[in-house]
TrEMBL record:
TM region(s), chain numbering: none
Enzyme nomenclature, EC number: 6.2.1.5
UniProt catalytic activity: GTP + succinate + CoA = succinyl-CoA + GDP + phosphate; succinate + ATP + CoA = succinyl-CoA + ADP + phosphate
Lineage of origin: Bacteria, Bacillati, Actinomycetota, Actinomycetes, Pseudonocardiales
Species this protein is from: Pseudonocardia oroxyli
GO molecular function list: nucleotide binding; succinate-CoA ligase (ADP-forming) activity; succinate-CoA ligase (GDP-forming) activity
Name by which UniProt lists this protein: Succinate--CoA ligase [ADP-forming] subunit alpha
Family: Belongs to the succinate/malate CoA ligase alpha subunit family.
A biological process from GO: tricarboxylic acid cycle
EC primary class: ligase
Pfam families recorded: CoA_binding (PF02629), Ligase_CoA (PF00549)
Length: 295
């Protein structure tokens, strides 16, 4: 099984006709993703051929859903237009919106996240500033390369895109039920805890890798959740042990303030919850290999 995304998911791409949308839609189609159309108000009613498939471009998400039955939108819209694009997806009540766009102002993310809550959380948001979600051999919504790893028993949730790819590569001999990149912005939709809850409930996921990074307290809260609710083995990695205090590292949310948000504090919280934490991604992968071998 998989979480949030499966072989029956019908995907639309907001920003399909832009360079990023076209490039990644081609790769998603090649990975077997069922893309059923795109959204661009200025090109509504046209048809584009991508990866050998004719895709209709709709004026709104609502129209696309009505005509195609789409239940996932992947959003490749420039930062200044992204808030409106996500709100449009929420207003149409699409079940899953994967926001790839980097550089969305935090107040815009706060606005559309609050809008989703006000609408009753009918739309799960993944991102923004994330690589998306892949259920190998079933569907790929985003920019995660589909050929790194196949299906298997490991669930992966990560703040970092590149570390998502590295961990999938390191554990490719075992494979993944779903790998989800939640993004590293200060305000995101789906959290570590949301993914942990879904992996815990998924019978095919036997063990979980959680990748965090400095800044905020998401990993500490995830550790508390694991202690109370997760019975499956979890291994972790926290990026940023050498980060200087007060300097943003890579992601907008990756900033250490005093003793809060340090890699060491997060590592200690996770270990106190029974999570084995590697000092490097490769060491973390080795810990997971030991766990899978013992299952």
């Amino acid at each position: 099984m998989s979480i949030f995304l499966n072989e029956n998911s019908k995907v639309i791409v907001q920003g399909l006709t832009g360079s990023e949308g076209t490039k990644h839609a081609t790769k998603m189609l090649a990975a077997g993703t069922n893309i059923v159309g795109g959204v661009n108000a200025r090109k509504a009613g046209t048809t584009v051929t991508i990866g050998g498939k004719d895709l209709k471009v709709f004026g709104t998400v609502e129209e696309a859903m009505k005509e195609t039955g789409a239940d996932v939108s992947v959003i490749f819209v420039p930062p200044k237009f992204a808030k409106d694009a996500v709100i449009e997806a929420i207003d149409a009540a699409i079940p899953l919106a994967v926001v790839i766009t980097e550089g969305i102002p935090v107040h815009d993310s706060a606005y559309f996240w609050a809008h989703a809550v006000a609408k009753g959380n009918q739309t799960r948001i993944i991102g923004p500033n994330c690589p998306g979600i892949i259920s190998p051999s079933k569907s790929n919504a985003g920019i995660i390369p589909a050929d790194i790893a196949g299906p298997g028993p490991i669930g992966l949730v990560s703040k970092s895109g590149t570390l998502t790819y590295q961990m999938m590569y390191e554990l490719k001999e075992f494979g993944f039920s779903t790998a989800i990149g939640i993004g590293g912005d200060p305000i995101i939709g789906t959290t570590h805890i949301d993914a942990l809850e879904a992996f815990q409930a998924d019978p095919e996921t036997k063990a979980i890798v959680m990748i965090g990074e400095i800044g905020g307290d998401a990993e500490e809260r995830a550790a508390a959740y694991i202690k109370e609710n997760v019975t499956k083995p979890v291994v972790g990695y926290v990026a940023g042990f050498t980060a200087p205090e007060g300097k943003t590292m890579g992601h907008a949310g990756a900033i250490v303030s005093g003793s809060a948000g340090t890699a060491q504090a997060k590592k200690e919280a996770l270990e106190a919850a029974g999570v084995k934490v590697g000092k490097t991604p490769s060491e973390t992968a080795a810990l997971m290999k030991e766990i899978i071998a013992a299952l």
